[in-house]
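Lab notebook: predicted structure, single chain.

Context: the supervisor wants predicted structures on file for every construct in the current expression panel, including those that have not yet been purified. This is the next one on the list. No modifications to the sequence; it matches the entry in the shared construct table.
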Amino acid sequence: MVGIVAVLRGAKNHKLLIEAFNELNFKNSALVIVGDGPGENNLKAITNGKQNIFMLGNRSDVSEILPSFDIFVLPSKMEALGTAILEASSCAVSCIGSDAGGIIEAIRDKKTGLIFKSEDKESLKEALKSLIEDKNLIVMLGKNAREYVEQNFSIEKTVKDTEKLYENL
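Prediction complete. Output recorded below exactly as produced.
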């Protein structure tokens, strides 16, 4: 199962993900979209009639939904850090993200996830295809991603780094 959790607005680029997923036309795969926002009606129009695309709307149980994803995708055109990727990674979910903004801080390409060229549908399709076809790669990247988040983005490390910053100031 491929999923995204993000506000439904143009900058998150859900449309690119939907198009790439549809064009791959994998049997026994589903795309789950969690979130709401100003782009909801447009995305519903695009996904209307698709049997394997599910729009769940805004949910309060995201922490329960994330671990059910095999692949988390954040195809944003711009992103400060990509905390949604960090959240998915903490659940050992393999991630794909665009090379926009801080996403490249949240994913180490081919080590903790896959990076694709922002707004490049063929690049996204290639990343999706490589993971959907290789369950071992999904597991390895997910495991590495969890370790990366624990080592670099834990509350303890963040507090320690913040304290060090204030001491240096």
